[in-house]
UniProtKB/TrEMBL annotation:
Ranges where the EVE domain occurs: 2-134
A matching Pfam family: EVE
Name used for this protein in its record: EVE domain-containing protein
Organism: Paracoccus spongiarum
Length: 137
DNA sequence: GCCAACGTTGGC
DNA sequence: GCCAACGTTGGC
């Protein structure tokens, strides 16, 4: 089982929008970055991820699950762009903000802290555990 | 709204 | 294949 982080601007598509999709989840389309795409290609059905609100809130707010493995992005003309489907699992009891993550020594190597621009990121098992602890789980 | 960081593009 | 120019992202 691997762990990931999905970033989204809540203005455009936020946690509440994903929850509203229910069991069917949402195609995580629109990614046009090779690193992010490669991360999605590596995902397995059932992998878990954090749903992070960029710009507004700047916090991980929920846990998502990979509902469908990598497939061509239906919004891309070029089939080289792929994406997964994700669905909401549960909200975090307490959102974990970027500031808190930066202040936590155990998260100093987290991609979110060091390369905030990557929109789909891997999260290590240790980092995952720390985030959940901070979130009150 | 600014700007730093990063990725991509295209000229050479 | 290098690198300057450009566009985009996202924190501040």
């Amino acid at each position: 089982m691997a762990y990931w982080l999905f970033k989204s601007e809540p203005d455009v598509f936020g946690w509440d929008d994903l929850v509203a999709r229910g069991e069917r989840g949402e195609e995580w389309d629109g990614v046009r970055n090779y690193q992010a795409r490669n991360n999605m290609r590596a995902m397995k059905r059932g992998d878990l991820g954090l749903f992070y609100h960029s710009n507004i809130g700047k916090a991980a707010v929920g846990i998502v699950e990979v509902a469908a493995e990598s497939h061509p992005d239906s919004t891309a003309a070029d089939p080289k762009w792929e994406c997964v489907d994700i669905r909401a699992v549960r909200p975090l009891p307490r959102p974990v903000t970027l500031d808190e993550a930066k202040a936590e020594p155990r998260l100093k190597d987290m991609v979110l802290v060091n390369n905030s621009r990557l929109s789909v990121q891997p999260v290590s098992e240790a980092e995952w555990a720390v985030i959940l602890e901070m979130a009150g789980l």
